[in-house]
Design goal:
With 239 residues, the protein is an alpha/beta fold. The chain has a single domain (12-233), classed as 3-Layer(aba) Sandwich (Rossmann fold), CATH 3.40.50. The protein contains six helices and seven strands, in the order E-H-E-H-E-H-E-H-E-H-E-H-E. A seven-stranded parallel sheet has the order 3-2-1-4-5-6-7, sandwiched between helices. The two termini are 30 Å apart. The relative contact order is 0.14.
Length: 239
């Protein structure tokens, strides 16, 4: 256990897609590290419940927003600044997947997945960057996937969105590093959650949401002169 068990005291984090699964685990970990955590999701009831439950282990505030909508994202960031007057950490976790052969996918499915997984991350980065630039510091962490590096049958839309998120991460890192802002990307393999069980794989051998949360904790507590730009996260045993 480190000497300072709450190294993120006085820091403010926004976590998108934080009401369940990976995002919920990340929000909980940041609370344990002492951060003030803004829990973001699309459903007001789910956001309120998650913030209330996370409040038992740390300060959590729920703000409802759909990252596909620019107005929602700007409101999310503006409300966070009004309340806390700073943003130190942004975790872009909100994401969805729709799968099937490329010739059978509907344009509407493309729009929904790409707008959430890629456009949403662009909107949030664009909104928080000016505040972090004025502070001279900040962490932006994008939750991508190993599917952002390797295509697979039926994964056309999902893989395209995650490949795009990789490019967004690399370029944003170069744009912002001179301001003391570190943009990192985490690429997990298959993660077992209640909402994404991955049929045919052994859940006991799969990654857990807490594994991704641990990687986030590593990034936001790294020494100030270092910059871990990318983490590939795999289970120790193939599931």
């Amino acid at each position: 256990m480190p000497k300072d068990s709450q190294p993120l005291r006085q820091e403010v984090a926004i976590v998108t897609g934080a009401t369940r699964g990976i995002g919920r685990a990340i929000a909980a970990q940041l609370c344990r590290l002492g951060a003030q955590v803004v829990v973001c999701g699309r459903g007001a009831r789910e956001v309120e419940r998650a913030a209330r439950e996370l409040g038992a282990s740390g300060q959590a505030l729920g703000i409802t927003a759909d990252v596909q909508k620019l107005d929602d994202v700007e409101r999310l960031v503006n409300q966070t600044m009004e309340i806390f007057e700073r943003i130190d950490i942004l975790v872009n976790n909100a994401g969805i997947g729709m799968f099937g052969p490329v010739d059978r996918l509907a344009p509407e499915e493309w729009e929904q997945v790409v707008n959430t997984n890629l456009r949403g991350a662009f909107y949030t980065i664009r909104a928080v960057a000016p505040h972090m630039m004025r502070q001279g510091s900040g962490h932006i962490i994008n939750i991508s996937s190993l599917a952002g590096k390797n295509g697979f049958a039926g994964g056309t839309i999902y893989c395209a969105s995650k490949f795009g998120l990789m490019g967004l991460s690399y370029s944003a890192a170069e744009d912002l590093r001179g301001y003391g802002i570190r943009v990192s990307v985490i690429c997990p393999g298959s993660v077992h959650t209640e909402f994404s069980p991955h049929a045919g794989k052994n859940p006991e051998k799969m990654l857990k949401p807490e594994d991704v949360a641990h990687a986030v904790a590593m990034l936001v507590t790294q020494r100030p002169q270092s910059f871990i730009s990318e983490i590939d996260l795999r289970p120790t045993q193939k599931p």
